[in-house]
Amino acid sequence: MAIAAVVAFFVYLIWTWDLSDPTIDWQDTPETIGKTGRLSLRLEDPGKGLRQVMVAVEQAGQRQVLLDESYAGSGWPWQDRTPQRSVAVSLETAQMPMLAEGPFRVQVRAVDQPNLWLFSRSTEDTRELTLDQTPPTLAVLSSQHNIRQGGSDLIVYRSEAGVAASGGMVGENGFRGYPLTGAPEGTFAVIVGMAYDQPPDTRIAVWAEDQAGNRSERNVPYEVLAGRFRKRRIDISDSFIDSVAPEILARSDEVQGGSSKLETFLAINARLREINHEFIRELSERSAGRLLWNEPFRQLSNSQVEALFADQRTYYYDGKAVDEQTHQGFDLASTAQSPVEAANAGKVLWADYLGIYGNCVILDHGLGLLSLYGHLSAIDVAAGDDVQRGQSLGRTGRTGLAGGDHLHFSTIAQGVQVNPLEWWDEKWLENHVFNRLEAARTAPE
Questions:
Q1: Is 370 exposed, middle or buried (0-12, 13-18, 19+ CB in 10 A)?
Q2: Could you tell me whether strands 231-236 and 311-317 are parallel, antiparallel, or unpaired per DSSP bridges?
Q3: Measured between alpha carbons, how far is 349 from 444 in angstroms, rounded to an integer?
Q4: What is the mean pLDDT of the chain?
Q5: Would you place residue 100 in the very low, low, confident or very high pLDDT band (cuts 50, 70, 90)?
Q6: pLDDT attached to residue 392
Q7: Neighbouring residues of 286: CB distance < 8 A, sequence distance ≥ 6
Q8: DSSP string, 214-247
Q9: Rounded distance, CA 347 to CA 371, Å?
Q10: How far apart are CA 373 and CA 376, in angstroms?
Q11: End-to-end CA separation in angstroms for the chain
Q12: Exposure string (b/e) for 53-85, b if CB count within 10 Å is 16 or more?
């Protein structure tokens, strides 16, 4: 009987003996960290499971443990165990005073549950990282920045080559910067836009962030020219709602009709408008990193202005004010179904139906600048097409939220609608865009 018990015990040991070492998978490991960083690790031991996980940093003979976790043992195969564990380790350098700038090591150790309560297996792995808490250099190169409420400007600045990201800020609105081709390394350009409703004391700045997350910011000296915007009354009728809502709702899954005609109109005029503008902002992230044009923008041929940029509209229904929205573009009228030309050279980002804008074409002109052509009756181009200034994009119409045949034209700087008048103005372009780019390209390194 005793012999049988001993044999059974040894069979059990052989059956349950764990010959595998724990594994360490570095899932997210930055090469450089600044004031803060994060490690993501996945540790596994499919045999008897994990017993301990430890993470420590070492530099110049000093060591600090960041994580030390232990897990309950499992004496028998049917008992619970910890075969795997995902851990996120925060590298807060303020809490690691022993670290100085430069290389340091992260050591990870995983230990599994023991065989016969005595014999554990362990795995150790190290990675070398670099601590960098020095923000990148940053300087504004362009000068004499005058910007109008609702207007645009181009800023040229210099930072270190290879920064992770950089750009401009106008208040809370951010604008991506692009490396400037033909200029000394580390030179960037950004087109910024001041929204029509941002106050004159809004801060304008440029920023740069390195691979370690260190960030520099510099204010841009500027003068703001106050904008003047019209207030307009728009009367809404049941017949108008009936003429526009069915088409828009049928082609826009983002909103549903309401229990009344008024509720349906408000869903389109407010909620769908907001959704469409967010889509346009996301679309601008695909903009080319260089200007795709070298001439002034052009207004629709033989057109008259019906509505201005930033007209502040109050909508009335049955004599009562029911909504307020700002018209962020120009309404340009010509003869019905007139040809619509590209205002400048660019690439088609969108050529399809887009909510309140109906049949719509959106062109990318580079550096985050887009132009939009809405309410078209026909579209002559497709997404991905390269177009030239004056090339036909389609024909005017009254699709979307339009009361009559016209073109809605907008210029957009990375999601911020800006006044097209500046982009139509050859002198403004010379002073605010072309001269600054040329000065940056010819500046000594």
A1: buried
A2: parallel
A3: 36
A4: 91
A5: very high
A6: 97
A7: 349, 364
A8: -EEEEE--EEEEPP---EEEEEE-HHHHHHHHHH
A9: 10
A10: 7
A11: 91
A12: bbbbbbbeeeeeebeeeebeebeeeeeebbeeb
- For residue 90, what are its two tokens? 């925060």
Q: Torsion over CA of 316, 321, 323 and 324, rounded to 10 degrees?
A: 100
Supply angle C-alpha 365, 369, 373, rounded to 5: 75
CA angle (413 as vertex; 407, 416 as ends), nearest 5? 80
Mean pLDDT of the 386-394 span: 98
Rounded Cα distance, 134 and 33, in Å:
11
Give, in order, the Cα–Cα distances in Å from 57 to each of 86, 152, 339.
19, 48, 67
Nearest to 411 by CA among 296, 269, 267: 296
Identify any residues that bridge with 267 across adjacent strands, giving them in sequence order. none
pTM of the model: 0.85
CA angle 177, 171, 435 (to 5 degrees): 45
CA distances from 429 to 26, 154, 220, 235, 303 (A): 50, 10, 19, 38, 22
Asked if 204 contacts 427 with a C-beta cutoff of 8 angstroms, the reply is no
Do 220 and 206 form a contact (C-beta atoms < 8 A)? yes
Structure tokens at 358: 């109906």
Tokens at 55, concatenated = 């993470």
* 445: confidence class by pLDDT, cuts 50, 70, 90: low
pLDDT digits (tens, 9 = 90+) for 294-340: 999 999 999 999 999 999 999 999 999 999 999 999 999 999 999 99
Evaluate if residue 347 carries a pLDDT over 90: yes
